[in-house]
Amino acid sequence: MSRPTASADLPAAWPQGVPRDVEVPDEPLTALLDRAARAHADRVALDFLGATTTYGQLAAQVARGMRVLHDLGVRAGDRVALVLPNCPAHVVAFWSVLRLGAVVVEHNPTYSADELAHQLADSGATVAVVWEQAVPRVLEARDRTQLRHVVAVDLSADLPRTKRWALNLPVPRARRTRAAMRGPVPAGVPHWHRLVHAAAPMPAPEPPAAADVALLQYTGGTTGTPKAAVLTHRNLGANALQGQTWTQAEPGTEVVYGVLPLFHAFGLTLCLTYSVRIAATLVVLPSFDPAQVLAAQKRRPGTFLPAVPPMLDRLATAAEETGADLTSFRYSISGAMALPRATAERWERVTGGLVSEGYGMTETSPVALGNPLSPDRRPGALGLPFPSTRIRVVDQEDPTRDVDPGEQGELLVSGPQVFQGYWNRPEETAHQLLDGGWLRTGDVVRVDEDGMVVLVDRMKEMIVTGGFKVYPSQVEDHLRDMPGVSDVAVVGEPAGDMGEHVVAAVVLDEDGSGAHIDLAAVRAWCETRLARYALPRRLVVLTDLPRSQVGKVLRRVVREQVTDGRHPA
Fold first, then answer.
1. Is 522 within 8 Å of 459 (Cβ atoms)?
2. How far apart are CA 537 and CA 186, in angstroms?
């Protein structure tokens, strides 16, 4: 599937053995699972806290999952919401939806009812497969959506039998584990595992076309309004192929650790579709817990770890403190935020393997650039364009004009992994996608002489904390409704390996009604509508907010004020 490219056409830093271009097959994403199930039927596809599922068993469960969804009325083109943490049920539901020709809509299961209501209504999803703990929030949002059916997922049902039995023991540890995995479900809400177990396998219908929509993945893009990036089977399949080409992975040999959330674009591609493409064993973990990772590592040593820098740092610390052996990890790809040199050096010292930084967006499925998986990788650089990916660096004010070599400008990306646009948002699509399929990233970069792309600054004002994106306007909109708050600006401040912390700069009402407001009160107010990672970590009280001549709050100036020490918390 690869086409050789003359060495003269390659950047100086291009990795040896990786072709510049790949030929993306005209097939649906589900062809990856079909091939893996045929060629590696007995290989373990999923390991969930010791419970294993082979590729043959996974394909059989998907056939029953299709029947469940079909009986609930799901047909080609319908949207099905997945509101799930990492678990085998998530994987089965994902492939079941796609096999029916329907569209997966991924959601963060920790979102509030309001956040879920917006996304569910926007996508038009008619069926939702939901973690038990999120079921009450989805039901609260249901009247504002087109949902006809909500199906509950008991996370503990995917555990090995002995661990399921142990959850019922009358001891504190069992109660804590049970509370973390399960939740109350109202009568009348069916359970996914029971439906799948009782269902007869469904023959696969006519497969979807490569150009058909496979996934709606919500992102803020360059604004703060959540909107769905439309990704086709070809987009996702292309990125999985590009990943295999870049890593030069041999099918049936790798053990990938799924510590990234599958509902996030980074985790979905690197841990789900890429893993199936190379018939890897995916070690599925419900959340990131260093002790849980090290326990799994003893049972099934990993070879490849996609992660964000704080995960690498915490795992390296845990391994050093406990003496755990991580030397089976040959490669790690770090993304979603800058990789500190100290973190990279520490990880490589502990594992003896390599960690390389990558770059992408939800709109690029998500990987667009990567560092070589070799000693030639350069910590701090975004990397090189992936195979069949082209880039331009253009004037920030005039994206039709390329800047001179070596100058900084906005990064544009083109390739088979670039999305089709935003769901039902033609104006925003037209702003983001230029003629010729060039995607505006909103990031300012320069390209060095060896072809490496280096991030200079972000045009976007989003905050990246622990690998998650926080859009200031969303936090601001909620805080403006807080009694006693007259005005607010939300910015990020450097937080070491975490990337940034969310800081709320507020102006209090002149009547003194805001005298009670402190950081704890702000966080409590925000918890009702915002994800936990979006909660402010610091509060700064200002007498006024700096504004432009047209009245727009100058977040850049606010950021300078709250980070230079003039306004302590």
1. no
2. 35
| Cα(235)–Cα(413) distance, integer angstroms | 14
304: three-class secondary structure by DSSP: strand
Pick the CATH number of 2-7+17-414 from 3.30.1330.10, 3.40.50.12780, 3.30.390.50, 2.60.40.10: 3.40.50.12780
- The amino acid present at 482, given as its one-letter code, is M
Q: Provide mean pLDDT across the span 43-50.
A: 97
- Tokens encoding 10: 């390659």
The Cα 83–Cα 138 span in angstroms is 9
What span, in angstroms and rounded, lies between the C-alpha atoms of 364 and 392? 15
Q: What distance in Å separates the CA atoms of residue 65 and residue 98, rounded to the nearest whole number?
A: 11
**Token pair in block for residue 485:** 């708050």
Q: Is 252 left (phi over 0), alpha (psi -120 to 50) or beta?
A: left
153-186 pLDDT per residue, tens: 999 999 998 888 888 888 888 888 888 889 999 9
Q: Is 12 exposed, middle or buried (0-12, 13-18, 19+ CB in 10 A)?
A: exposed
Say what the pTM is: 0.85
Distance CA 2, CA 22 (A): 4
| In contact, 403 and 45? CB cutoff 8 Å | no
pLDDT level of residue 549 (50, 70, 90 thresholds): very low
Angstrom distance (rounded) from CA 40 to CA 391: 37
In this structure, is the dihedral angle defined by the CA atoms of residues 89, 91, 96 and 98, taken in order, positive or negative?
positive
**Which ranges of 331-463 does DSSP label H, i.e. alpha helix?**
341-351, 426-432
The domain segmentation of the chain, as residue ranges, is 2-7+17-414, 463-563
Helix 290-299 × helix 309-322 angle, to 10°: 70
Q: Which class is 463-563 in CATH?
A: alpha beta
The tens digit of pLDDT for each residue in 364-385 reads: 999 999 999 998 898 889 999 9
Helix (H, G, I), strand (E, B) or coil at 23: coil
b/e for 416-432, b at 16 or more Cβ within 10 A? bbbbbbbbebeebbeeb
Q: Which of 321, 381, 331 is nearest to 351 (CA)?
A: 331
**CB contact at 8 A, 267 and 243:** no
More confident site: 472 or 362: 362
Give the C-alpha separation, 339 to 251, whole Å.
28
